[in-house]
Amino acid sequence: MKIIKAKDYDEMSRKAANLIAAQIYVKPDCVLGLATGSTPIGTYKELVAKYEMGDLDFSEVTTVNLDEYKGITKENDQSYYYFMNDNLFSHVNINKEKTFLPDGTEPDSDKACNAYNEIIHSVGGQDLQLLGLGHNGHIGFNEPASEFPLETHCVDLTESTIKANQRFFASYDDVPKQAYTMGIKTIMQAKKVLVVVSGEDKADIVQKAFFGPVTPEVPASVLQLHPDCTVVADAAALSKVNM
Ligand code: F6R
Fold it and tell me: Are the beta carbons of 241 and 207 closer than 8 angstroms?
């Protein structure tokens, strides 16, 4: 595992975007695994800027996202579909038919998860998987557990996650209670993994996940076993480790 220290969020975003751009330069028809959440927003902004400068071409790129809420329409501004279009896809020359997320509108979980596994296999898996890091060590919606979940599956969101999300929805009843997420095996099969982490509030989990024992109780710790994993973290996120 390689850890790259950035001085702050903006530098983290630039460094991460450079690594993604490098992937697109060496393989223009690469498959990018993408993440939502607040951390990668700056990375997507940098990628859009590179595209606008004429330095990056997304026309042959395929993307597969980590996760999507179950029971949410694509038009809902809280869907991950909406997020990806808003933050990246609508601003670059990507072929939207080659951008994939789990289908949150499919009520049959097995059907949705099998279909998504099939898509990931059919595009040949991710050349590079971008990840954020949850405060409890989750990656995608793979929460701390007694074993590592393998492929795409449906998860029940914890009560604390539902409550935390409530502010984005009209009422508690409107907040999604489940989500579809890639499993740990699918993430680990990516040829390269790139994790972005920022902020002092992530310092404890950075230490546990990347310097502690590998355990499904801290899902991101499994990344220590990945043959080509790079973490780009800012100084605040690395403040509890000696570097
Ligand atoms: C996003 C995802 C989540 C986030 C994680 C960190 O698709 O699956 O695992 O990466 O919750 O979120 P932020 O970046 O908002 O701290």
Answer: yes
pLDDT tens across 53-108, in order? 999 999 999 999 999 999 999 999 999 999 999 999 999 999 999 999 999 999 99
Distances (CA, A) of 224 to 130, 159, 215: 15, 29, 10
In the chain, the domains with their CATH numbers are: 2-190+206-234 (3.40.50.1360)
pLDDT tens figures, 126-152: 999 999 999 999 999 999 999 998 999
Å from CA of 35 to ligand 1 middle: 7
Q: Which residues pair with 5 in a beta bridge?
A: 233
From residue 185, how far is each of 182, 202, 221 by CA, in Å? 8, 24, 13
Centre of ligand 1 to C-alpha 36, Å, is: 6
Pairwise CA distance, residues 125 & 214, whole Å: 24
Q: Is 142 in the pocket of ligand 1 (CB under 6 A)?
A: no
| Beta-bridge partners for 179 | 69, 155
Q: Which residues contact 166 (CB under 8 A, 6 or more apart)?
A: 172, 175
Q: What is the DSSP string of 159-200?
A: HHHHHHHGGGSSSGGGS--EEEE--HHHHHTSSEEEEEE-SG
- The H or E element containing residue 31 is strand 31-34
What is the distance between the alpha carbons of residues 194 and 190, in angstroms, rounded to a whole number?
Answer: 10
Q: How many CB atoms lie within 10 A of CB 185?
A: 13
pTM score, two decimals? 0.97
Would you say the CB of residue 103 lies under 6 angstroms from ligand 1? no
